[in-house]
Amino acid sequence: MDTINLIIDNKPIVVKKGTTILEAASSIGVQVPTLCHMKLDDLNIENKPGGCRVCVVEVEGRRNLAPACCTDVHEGMVVNSHSIRAINARRTVMELILSDHPADCLICAKSGDCELQDMAQQLGIRKIHYPGEQSHYREDTSPAIIREIDKCIMCRRCEMMCNEVQTVGVLSAINRGFDSVVSPAFEMNLDHSECTYCGQCVAVCPTGALTEVDDTGKVIRALSDPAKTVIVQTAPAVRAALGEEFEMEPGTLVTGKLVSALRRLRFDHVFDTDFAADLTIMEEGTELLNRLGKHLAGDKDVKLPILTSCCPAWVKFFEHQFPEMKEIPSTARSPQQMFGSIAKTYFAEKLGVERENLVVVSIMPCVAKKYECGRDEFKVNGNPDVDHVITTRELAALIKLSNIDFKTLPNEDFDNPLGESTGAGVIFGTTGGVIEAAVRTAYEIHTKKELPRLDFDELRGMDGIREATIDFDGLPIKIGIAHGLGNARKLLEDIQAGKSEFHAIEIMSCPGGCIGGGGQPYHHGNAEILKKRQMAIYQEDKNKTLRKSHENPHIIKLYEEFLGEPMSEKAHHLLHTEYFDRTE
Amino acid sequence: MSKVKSFTDLKNLKSEYHKKQIFGTPAESLVQIKVGMATCGIASGAKEIKKFLIEECEHQAIDAEIKQTGCLGYCYAEPMVEVQLPDSEPVVFGYVDKKRAKSIIENYIIQGEEIEGEIPISFKTIND
Amino acid sequence: MTDTKKQIRIALRNCGLIDPEQIEDYIAQDGYFALGKCLTEYTQDQTIAEIKESGLRGRGGGGFPTGLKWEITKNVEADQKFVVCNADEGDPGAFMDRSILEGDPHSVLEAMAICGYCIGADKGLIYIRAEYPLAIERLKIAIKQAREFGLLGNDILGTGFNFDIELRYGAGAFVCGEETALIHSMEGLRGEPTFKPPFPSVSGYMGKPTNVNNVETFASVPVIINKGAGWFNKIGTEKSKGTKVFALAGKINNVGLVEVPMGTTLREVVYDIGGGIVNGKEFKSVQTGGPSGGCLTKDFLDTPIDYDNLVAAGSMMGSGGMIVMDEDDCMVSIAKFYLEFTLEESCGKCTPCRIGNKRLHEILEKITEGNGTEEDIDRLKVLSNVIKDTSLCGLGQSSPNPVLSTIANFEDEYLAHVKDGKCPAGQCKSLLRYDIIEDLCTGCTLCFRNCPVGAITGERRAPHFIDQSLCIKCGVCFEKCKFDAITLT
Ligand SMILES: Cc1cc2nc3c(=O)[nH]c(=O)nc-3n(C[C@H](O)[C@H](O)[C@H](O)COP(=O)(O)O)c2cc1C
Ligand code: SF4
Ligand code: SF4
Ligand code: SF4
Ligand code: SF4
What we know:
The complex is a heterotrimer.
Chain A: E1 3-8, E2 11-16, H1 21-27, E3 38-40, E4 45-47, E5 56-59, E6 66-67, E7 77-80, H2 84-99, H3 115-122, E8 140-141, E9 145-147, H4 157-165, E10 172-174, E11 181-183, H5 200-204, E12 210-212, H6 216-223, E13 229-234, H7 255-264, E14 269-272, H8 273-296, E15 306-307, H9 312-321, H10 335-351, E16 358-364, H11 368-372, E17 379-380, E18 383-384, E19 388-391, H12 392-401, H13 423-426, H14 433-447, E20 465-472, E21 475-483, H15 485-496, E22 504-508, H16 527-543, H17 553-563, H18 569-575
Parallel strand pairs in A: 1-7, 13-14, 13-16, 15-22, 16-19, 21-22
Antiparallel strand pairs in A: 1-2, 3-4, 5-6, 5-7, 8-9, 9-12, 10-11, 17-18, 20-21
Helix pairs in contact in A: 8-10, 8-14
Chain B: H1 7-21, E1 31-36, H2 39-43, H3 46-59, E2 64-69, E3 81-84, E4 91-93, H4 98-110, E5 118-119, E6 123-124
Parallel strand pairs in B: 1-2
Antiparallel strand pairs in B: 1-3, 3-4, 4-5
Chain C: E1 7-8, H1 23-28, H2 33-41, H3 44-54, H4 66-75, E2 82-87, H5 96-103, H6 105-119, E3 123-129, H7 133-148, E4 153-156, E5 161-170, H8 179-186, E6 210-214, H9 215-227, H10 229-232, E7 243-250, E8 256-261, H11 266-273, E9 283-288, E10 294-296, H12 307-312, E11 321-326, H13 331-345, H14 351-368, H15 374-390, H16 394-398, H17 401-419, E12 434-436, H18 446-450, E13 456-457, E14 465-466, H19 476-480, E15 486-488
Parallel strand pairs in C: 2-3, 2-6, 3-5, 7-11
Antiparallel strand pairs in C: 4-5, 7-8, 9-10, 9-11, 12-15, 13-14
The complex binds flavin mononucleotide (FMN) and iron/sulfur cluster (4 copies).
Residues 145, 161-162, 166, 168, 170-171, 195-201 of chain A line the site of one iron/sulfur cluster.
């Protein structure tokens, strides 16, 4: 029998075998509260430890209450989701969680966006009947992430993300009983661990236990320093998500409002990381074609596939996990760093401003970018190419702090020259986008023909690992795509085992790519939001008149005026990098 | 040891061992001594007692087989020693230190006198 | 000694009889006959039927019918299955399993092979705590000998049946005895339970069907095969067959291991076998079921011991710890003591157990320190019930039992703590009060000179006084006074 008849809150229903009480209840509009449970449909990501026990319901004939999230329905089951026994138990459990949680909501980074806070309100907790000792841990601050573990409620979402999805394995439950907590091994600091700073733990933490390092103060200080010229770049994924912070529908594109908000924040020039993304394609695409050409000519020293290198968490991941393969990824810097490098040379020269007096701020969907900008190889005499990185969420906070009514802002355009971009640059924000952008350019350079079409549906989607073969005018180019580091690991292991047949692989650390980055508005486990952001990104691409990086007039000009050719000596110096073995 | 190739082999082995081991069947002249040597026994000094019994029996020229065994359950009275004289039922002694061990040998084994501290067997076996 | 052979040794049949390091000794006692019989005379289903008919239930605590578990595991289709022996034995004070493994390791190996034959597994794993070095040593010897004799390995007894056994070591966490936690621990993961279903029989070690049984359960199997289910199921009560090994401890004369038929009364165990209470004191309570069992009063002494009766009485069988308490034991402190254990051993995964037990403990502490209120007793009850109702695994689901059963059976003792500020057993230090009886005090100054905190004042040859706010209840004055002039209330 494949269907099950049961009754939930007096309502008879029929569901598929293997359905949980939670799912069955939700299908008839009974929203059993949950806290630790989190499911990202389509991405195959689920956290279901059955640990918080908030979702307990009463099942007739059962000795104890049943956790709705992990109990499968059975024939004839009678469920009461709000019996007095269930409500009392649920509220007591909630009180227990709160009894071991600092009550500093008023000044917590997560306040207003905290699932624990919401649940306490939903359950109407007004008093904690079981006060007692609270756990205390050292605060851990890394270049990108702050762990304020007193606020951890042991939902284990971060652990699941770090171990199962990302296979980094930094976070795990340690200690026993009341002292148990999620932490790097031996309670070491995150920056001593193999953490990639992908921020996926932050993205799913329901409380304020994991947050990004707040750099808004630095940005405000720079903006108010008359000696500094402060310019800003904003990553593609930001425009597809920022609106959510202002109660706009997920998937609303707010590019124009974003630009005008940044102007009102008094940035001297408002630029676009998409410009640098186009530049990345010029370099990376050329590198791909070079390596491919040599490979096809039988050069054994050339390694394929070539791997994209725009994602700093991915870079740190392979530096720790696959250092012996550090020759394979493209040497092209990420768009953020290419932007910084060009800004502090080409553009600074144009402005006639000293490098030291030019401050480059990035708005990123990403927390790893905070770490990336601090890497030594991206500094000149100690001065970083990118000074400060703030996330989409921090930008929203800054806009609110500056009394700007975001929703009513007019649409404005980016400044030039570093604000011009093509649709290829935009799609960097989603999984599959970088490689699609690369294909658009590499195809035309290689075949010297115009692409018959611009949308490569075979490269799009949300599957964790995707593959496609693109016909380069008779030359079949095999392309792999992975998002989520666990998926990346699988492709890397294939390469290691000599089983990989790909010519090029795109890797992004975050599920969904940067649209699902650790610095984006919290999705609270709703995968629909990610899909809507993805749709918005592709929409923005469609809206553009120019959709191929090599057609960006300011990129062409940049090469003419400054860089020469892609992969030129100067380009190498400014736009490429090297990788390090971090296992020592 | 070559492998036991069939159930019949096993049955034959059993009879062979059973005869050798004289379980329950009084042996001609051999004194059987078992020392309880599970963790509790060893913790209370059973190893020393076993060594002492071996030395002492040798010294007194007693024809004895002294072996280790598991726990009889009388933890409160460890170390435990079970003695089976030819033609008699096994007798269990508790709280055996060297002094008692000596007395067991000299008074019970050699003289056949009853001595104090005998612990009655308080259980049925699967064969009762 | 009053014992008139109230014990029957089935699981312990060879302990104390054979040399555990000699496979010959085991064979001489019909060792591996049950395996031989199953492999040559019984089909898998017949063997399972025999175990089912015997009525054997799991001795690890849950009391699940063993034959049924084997049948379920057998009926799951899989390319590989496992037999796991749970030798974690985490109950404090319990050592039944250790004794069996130290005294008769082959009986467990033989039973695991029989189980493997029944369910279709060729691999057995024994999960044993590393703190059991002697048991590990003897198991290693036994496995080696069994392999040499061809009783483990390939083509056992020429029947084509293959089965081998390996040891896995646990770090000695109590919760790792819970079967899903045990399996995760064997897989190299954190030893914490996961929600059941799926049960290990369906998805266990490496995701394969895995039959987990306790040491004592296994040790009973060969006898059942050799002597027949009909012999075994005549022993015991209607729903609990055979015998159970208990580790008797506490204020009892004959501390040790006993194996009694199901249906024996607690009185028989405590008085006839255990020899009664130490120093002839008054029996107060017997605690069964390990750290999360319940404390039963003398009213339950005539309860025949079996799985269902103990649960009905508010306790449980557990793995076989049995601790006897006398008039000097404070039941609030006892509840606190057990909670301290579960608190430390909780894996911390679920809220009610991780935080709830901590809160229970804090409230008990408050009561034993003399700061409790009647409301606290209610809070204990309410919270205990929620913890039982909502915890993920058996540990949390039973951890409040000592609290609930002591409140149910000894509420007056709780009330004495919170209402009168007294600990009737005189165990809670904070609630003790030393006073000097003026009429008896000669003013010898001995107490004054011995009090470590200077709480006693008084002139020579005049009555002395104790300043209650300074007194730390060390009792030195009480011991030193030669005139019995100091009272303890
Ligand atoms: C907290 C906890 C601890 C447990 N510890 C043990 C143990 O030490 N030994 C054991 O055999 N079973 C233990 N169990 C029971 C096992 O989960 C499992 O039911 C048992 O091993 C099954 O074997 P059985 O059917 O032969 O009893 C424990 C259960 C819980 C909830
Ligand atoms: S940032 Fe990523 S790698 Fe680092 S702990 Fe979080 S999930 Fe793991
Ligand atoms: S840090 Fe956050 S996500 Fe991780 S377990 Fe704690 S509350 Fe959950
Ligand atoms: S995928 Fe994007 S948001 Fe995520 S870590 Fe990489 S660069 Fe950052
Ligand atoms: S009840 Fe306790 S031991 Fe069991 S899963 Fe929950 S926290 Fe862990």
